[in-house]
Structure formats: structure tokens, C-alpha cells
């Protein structure tokens, strides 16, 4: 999900590969070690988050009804630390996004079919967590929104781009990208280790993060979130870090 804008800042291909590219590579060629490698294993019981308080609030809003899973939010991974891929630095942090014109850029470089399909399912105005990946301390740093729905990813046709795909044809492009815009920083950094603590606890007590794809499909650079998952994770920004 590279940010073409940033690459442009660098001059050529650098901008697009960064976010998307990095993520795509993480998905297909190397394990997205951000979650596995850097996440600590907090005890399941440490999710004092307030799942119970959160649940009460949500039940009062929805009548406690359960509906079938619907994904309406997203989590987008991007690498905030420099890493060369075919000679191009794929680094793209949330600060890089904020520095783009109108704080907007395209999320390119995705080369995983499931992640691509998620991109194609994104709707205008939907919000996503911006997740710093493959770094010393991975986690959620901000919120972005979809400002342009899926269209062909031009990097697939650029032979100088790390994500060039010689098998893709302009008349029938394999890969897509979307445009995203910075909305705001989260009130605090929400680390992977903290989210994992809640996930483990929720697997035991049926909380909203029990099936969160960040842990069930960790290598995917683009992941869908249910309204409940998004709301719960967002509620963590109000808590003091453990």
C-alpha cells in the first residue's frame, strides 16, 4: 500500500512503493513479522480494557442483538522505517502521509489477491486504522479515510517499480489501489502487544476482538474490521497504556 505521493517526493518510483509496496512484499515474500516477531505474549487476563463496560454500552445501543459479520472499516499496514526493495526505499509513515498535498495519496503496491479484493471492496468515506508495521514497535498510529475507490494500480506497469508485474495487461489489470486521506492521529499510540492482550482475553470471554484478522491472518497488509472491532480498538485510545 505504498504511497505514491511520497515516492514522487523522492523523485521517481520511491513514492508509490513505500506503503503499499512494503506491505505487499510483506504479504507474499516475507512473513509480516511485525505481529509475530515483535508482539509480546501478554496474559489473556490482562484485557481489563473494559470489554465488560464497552459491552454494556454497546448492548444498550444495539439491544444486545448479534448480526452476521459485516466489514465496514479497515486496517492498513505501512512501514515507517527505511527498507530497500529492489533499490527503492519503501518507507512510508503516517508523517509521510501528512506531508502529502492535501494529506492524500494512493495506496499502491498490493500484490496479494485477498488484500487486493479487500481494496476493491472499500467504499468512499470508510475509515481505516493506519498501522505501522515491520518496525521496532508495531501498532496503530492514526486514522485515514477512503477518498477514491479502487482503480488500476499504475505501478504494475512500471518496469522500474519494485512491484512491476509483467503478467498484468492494461486492458485487464490484475492489481488495484485506492486513495486515502489523513483524518487524525489516534490520541495515543496503540501497540500491537496491547491489542493482542485483548484478543487473547476475548478468545476466552467472547469479546469483539476474538476473531480479529490482525491475529488470524497476520501477514495480510490490508485487513477488514467489523464495526465492533473498530469501535473497541478505538476505545483503547482513551485508556492509559498498561
From TrEMBL:
Instruction: State if RNA-binding is listed as a keyword.
Output: no
A GO cellular component annotation here is: nucleus
Q: Which Gene3D superfamilies match?
A: ph1033 like domains
The protein's UniProt keywords, in alphabetical order, are: Nucleus, Phosphoprotein
Compositional bias of kind Basic and acidic residues: 10-28, 56-65
Q: Where is this region: Disordered?
A: 1-65
| Keyword tRNA processing carried by entry | no
List locations, semicolon-separated: Nucleus
* Taxonomic superkingdom: Eukaryota
Q: Spell out the coiled coil positions from the record.
A: none
Could you tell me which residue ranges the EVE domain spans? Answer: 73-235
Q: Note the PANTHER family from the entry.
A: THYMOCYTE NUCLEAR PROTEIN 1
- Function field: Specifically binds 5-hydroxymethylcytosine (5hmC), suggesting that it acts as a specific reader of 5hmC.
Put simply, this protein is called Thymocyte nuclear protein 1
